[in-house]
Amino acid sequence: MEDYPKTLLEFEKCFATEEACREYLYQIRWPNGFACPFCGHRKYWGSSIGQYRCSNCERRISLTAGTIFQDSRIPLQIWFRVIWQLVSQKHGISALGLQRVLGIKRYETVWTMLHKLRFAMIRPGRDHLAGTVEVDEIYIGGRHSGKRGRGAKGKTLVVIAVEDKSKRPGRIRLNKVKDASGQSLIQAVKECVEPKSEVCTDDWGGYNQLSSCDYKHTVIRKTADVGENLLPSANIVASLHYFVKKRL
Asked: How far apart are CA 99 and CA 56, in angstroms?
């Protein structure tokens, strides 16, 4: 909504009471006024707090039914503050840190809330990235002796695809792959990038077939060494991963 608070002070003022939170949720769910999900009737009787009874089919409808708040005993005020903390922190937030900030007694409660919210933030059937997209890889795992970069053992390889929005990151997709072969990398790109898009990579041979797969392939940096001189937008995503991992 356009009037969503932009600062913490505005947030506290806007959602100072449980009633204010319910009213906001009502506007989100029924922006054009109440509509029964069963019969579509627009008139209701208010039976109790957050509960509505359709005046046509007489079914009871909960304000939180079908949402992440359904069956939760946690006040909406707490839920809204958890959401604010989660989306306003650039480097993410841990359940333990959030527990301290909000004064919630049980760690498990906060962990479950964050799990529900993170799952809800994943949009099913997400659109593919389009336009100019930077693609690179990152290895996830602790320190290991031996070979570094592509071919390193004991680590998980993840392909990072980031839309370049005038030199700033746009939408992001992460895709786990088994290796850095052309077959794995090209398939990862196909799964998240719209055909005819410009795909910017390093000069690793695994990306050579992008041009023949209906993409405009641009080599953006000379070296293919993973972890050094990363593509700008992909580098931001990679650095945030390491920052969050270090905090956790």
From this structure: 44
Residue with tokens 């970069």: 149
* Tokens found for residue 153: 């053992």
The pairing of strands 216-219 and 198-201 is parallel
User: Residue 59 and residue 53: Cα distance in Å, rounded?
Assistant: 6
Q: Which of 31, 23, 32, 121 is nearest to 63 (CA)?
A: 23
Q: Residue 199 has which token pair? A: 């795909």
Beta strand spans in 143-191 (E): 156-164, 169-177
Of 126, 124, 127, the closest CA to residue 197 belongs to: 127
Strand partners, 137: 159
Alpha-helix runs per DSSP H in 126-231: 182-192
The CA distances from residue 165 to 82, 116, 179, 216, in Å, are: 29, 29, 29, 17
Angstrom distance (rounded) from CA 228 to CA 179: 19
Please give the Cα distance from 41 to 9 (Å, whole number): 38
Distance CA 69, CA 59 (A): 20
Rounded to two decimals, the pTM is 0.63
At residue 174, φ and ψ (nearest 5 deg) are -120, 135
Q: Is 138:161 a contact under the CB 8 Å cutoff? A: no
Where the chain has pLDDT below 70, the residues are: 1-2, 47, 90-91, 123-125, 141-154, 167, 221-248
Residue 45 structure tokens = 């009787």
